[in-house]
Every structure is written in C-alpha cells, then in structure tokens.
Amino acid sequence: MNKTQQLRELPSVDEVLHFDAIQDLALSCPRQSLVGWVRQAIDSQRQLILSEESGTRPSHEAIVEMILAQADLNQRESLQHVINATGIMLHTNLGRAPLAARAIQRVRQASAFSNVELDLDSGKRSKRGFRVTKLLQELTGAEAALVVNNCAAATMLVLQTMASGKEVVISRGQLVEIGGGFRLPNVFSAAGVKLCEIGTTNRTHVHDYEAAIGEETAAIMRVHHSNFAQIGFVTEPTIAELISSKRPESVPVIDDVGSGCVGDLSQYGIEEPDVIASVAAGADVTLFSGDKLFGGPQAGIIVGREHWIRRMSKNPLMRAIRVDKMTLAALEATTEIHLAGNATQELPLMQMLSKPLAEIQSSCQQVVQSLRKTSSATVSVVSSESQVGGGSVPGVGVSSHAIKIQTDHADQLCQFLRSGRPAVQGRITDGAVLLDLRTVADEEINLLTGRINDSLAELESGHAQ
User: Fold this and answer.
1) Of 158, 316, 346, 462, which has fewest CB within 10 angstroms of its CB?
2) Of the candidates 139, 153, 387, 388, which has an alpha carbon nearest to the alpha carbon of residue 277?
3) Pick from 17, 43, 77: which residue ends a domain?
4) Which UniProt keywords are given for this protein, alphabetically ordered (predicted)?
C-alpha cells in the first residue's frame, strides 16, 4: 500500500469522535479539548505515514491510545488529592496547610447559597466576613480585623492605606524576598510608599528607628524573616521595644509576623513571633498568613486599631483583594478551633507536629510488611527529619521516620508514584526514594501502601522487558 492509500485510510475527526472509547471519554471531557486531541492524534499518524522511514499502516488503535494518553495527562494537571510523603508539613507546592475536617465541612455548607452578605435576623444586607472578623478579634485581642486573599495583598493594603506618598522606616535585614521572586521593596513601590532603610543587614537598633523619623515618616514596620534565619553577630529590636521607642503618636507601628503563630510551639522547637503577643505589645496593625502555622486557608489577616482597619476596609483596593465565601467559611472554622483550644486535636498541621516518633515508626513498619517482594528495589525503615516548610521556621527540623526504597531507578519510581491515583509525592535523598510518614495521615496509610506496590510493579515490569 502506497502512502496516498494509507493517508486515505486515516479516519476523519467525526469518525474518531464516534469510536466507543472516545464517546465514553466525551462524557467527562470538554468537547473543544477532545476535538483538539483527536486532530493531534490524526495529524501524528499522518506525519508518521509521510516520514520516509515509516512503512506503518494507519492504526485506529494508535489514534485512540494517543487521545486517551492526552486525556490522562490533562486529568493529572487538574487539582487532585496528593499524598504528601515529603516530610514537609506546609509544602507550598502542595497547598500549604491541609484544612481541618470542621473547616472542610463548613466549606461544603458555604458552597451552596449561603448568608455571606445577609443578616438572617433582619433579612437585610450584612457586612461580608462579619463573623470571622469578630472571632479574630476575640482570638487576638485586637480592636478590629480584616481578611484579604493573601499576606502579600495584606501588606499592599496596609502600606497604601497608612503611608501612600510617604516613608515607612524598616530595617535592611528585613527587606525579604518571598516565593516567586516577589521582593518587599517592590511591594513598597507598588503601594506608592517610600522605603526608608535603616541599620545594616545583620544589626539594627531602636536608636536607628528613632533617628530616621522625620516629617515624611508615616509608619515604622517590622517584618519577620519567615523563610530565612540570621545567626551570629545579629540584633534587631523586639516589637515591644519598637512600641516603646521615642516616636510621635502619629507614627504607628506595623508588625508583619508572617507565619500566623497564635500559641507557644516551643515544645516542637518552633520559636516564631506570636500574633497575640504582637497585639498585646501594642502594635497598631499586625498582619499574618492564614495557611501557615495558623492552619487554615490561604488568606492575609490584618488585626489592629479600629480606625486603621476601618480605613483599610474603605480602600478601593479592598474590593479587588477580598476573599470568597469558601475562604471565609474555612477561616471561620479554623479560628473557632483555636478559640476552643482544640488546635492539637483538630488541625492537621498540629496533628503532624505532635505525632509521636514511635507511632510514625510503627506506621512505616506496617507499610513495609505489606509491600510486595521485588528484585528491583530494597525497602527499609530509616530515621528521617521533617520540616515545617511553607516559608516558616527555617532551619528547624523535626525528628521522624521514613520508608527508604533503594533502587537504581529512583527518578522513574517517583514518576510512577506521582502518576497514579492518588498521586504520591516523596523525595530523593542520596539516590534513594524516601517517604516520610510524619506528613501522611492515618487514613492515607493503606492508600499509600497500594500506590507503592503498584509503582514497584510498574518499575519491575518496565525493566524486565
């Protein structure tokens, strides 16, 4: 059969769309995407025929396989459940803090019609987020609270509202760069605020702030380092020292505590600035993230003096960065958990932090004992070190245990683990795959065992051929 005849045998787009396998796929895939994949598959077969070295006859099976592979790739790109076996508790790439069951239930309730801006008593329009801000005031002791979509947005809103066109005094050692290459000086610039740098990279004193205050000074700002640590010959004032510094009453103190710690976590080796302590010390405005140590959804939370919060709420920027009803629902439930003193019992982050070493080791052994025997890998239980992550608590490790899979094909095994359902994300250390079970929930253990078995079988099958 010559190439012209082979090309004539290629099915049309419409014919392929009526194949049984493709009709089944059409039930779950957008038609526009499906048609695009069909055209790509047909074109690929056409190019194969036209290539000089090919004598391949057009194959309907090959076309279907290509379309199904593309559909599978598309599905893997969608948001889905991933078993976090990295040992990083606030993994930014995996969405940081997993939500508590109470928060998930509240999101489900809010996803239908809900009273996001309705007073059920009067039947009149209410203020969006009224209850969660009231809960945040109760938790932190602040006069007022406000919620926006992330802490970078909170910083922008605070600076633009309190200091647009004027200077804000900040230590050089606190001019941080956060994920994605976003730098604090750029945020200042975008907010229309002049940056007044003081001190040096490693040492800044109270008198540096006092000496920098002038007619153009709108505020003093302290920013927690969050994703890095300075050690050695370093010093910087505490928030209490900044509050008691010599400054005009018209110059407020802004405290960006970053990670959202609202309790003593020193028993886990974590020393982070505390939101409640910041408010108690007298900070005019304190801001922090909702999805780090606070254990809730992504949000930028601002608490502080009522007159400043009121001005921020009326800033036109607020409309652009406000949160949706699902975020408010999750944050409301998370704040209730903190107020009830149930963080360790209900928040997944705190459950991971407080999980006993012996329990983690036992889970590892349970998984290893349930794994199939394979000649392509050696499996054992080893000591490991987990991290908090998420731009919080840099350099602080938490002892853990992990399943170690020693194989000559670690990258391929990790790919197999990620490509199944549910996906599993581990890490490679010294050429071996490590699956740290501190970050794996109890209800995921059996799922993880099955996924490891499937992946080891794929690995062995691929290298036995």
Assistant:
1) 316
2) 139
3) 77
4) Cytoplasm, Protein biosynthesis, Pyridoxal phosphate, Selenium, Transferase
Question: Quick one: angle between helices 445-464 and 410-419, nearest 10?
Answer: 130
Terminus-to-terminus CA distance in the chain, angstroms? 32
Same domain assignment for residues 168 and 229: yes
Could you give the CA distance from residue 239 to residue 289 in angstroms, rounded to a whole number?
A: 18
With beta carbons less than 8 A apart as the criterion, state whether 434 and 367 touch. no
Q: For position 231, what pLDDT does the model report?
A: 81
**Residue 41, SS3?**
helix
Are residues 314 and 288 part of one domain? yes
pLDDT digits (tens, 9 = 90+) for 113-131: 999 999 999 999 999 999 9
Question: Are 59 and 112 members of one domain?
Answer: no
* CA atoms of 289 and 261, how far apart (whole Å): 9
Complete DSSP assignment for 145-214: EEEESSHHHHHHHHHHHHHTTSEEEEEGGG--EEGGGEEHHHHHHHTT-EEEEES-SSB--HHHHHHH--
Strands (E) located in 371-418? 378-389, 392-406
Radius of gyration of the chain (CA): 28
Neighbour tally for 20: CB within 10 Å: 8
Contacts 24+ apart (CB under 8 A), 335-343: 335/132, 335/135, 335/136, 335/139, 335/296, 336/102, 336/135, 337/100, 337/102, 337/103, 337/295, 338/139, 338/262, 338/263, 338/294, 339/135, 339/138, 339/139, 343/263, 343/295
Q: How many domains does the chain have?
A: 3
**pLDDT-based confidence at 55, cuts 50/70/90?**
low
Query: The whole model's pTM is what?
Result: 0.90
User: Tokens in use for 76?
Assistant: 């893997």
Residues near 39 by beta carbon (within 8 Å), at least 6 away in sequence: 13
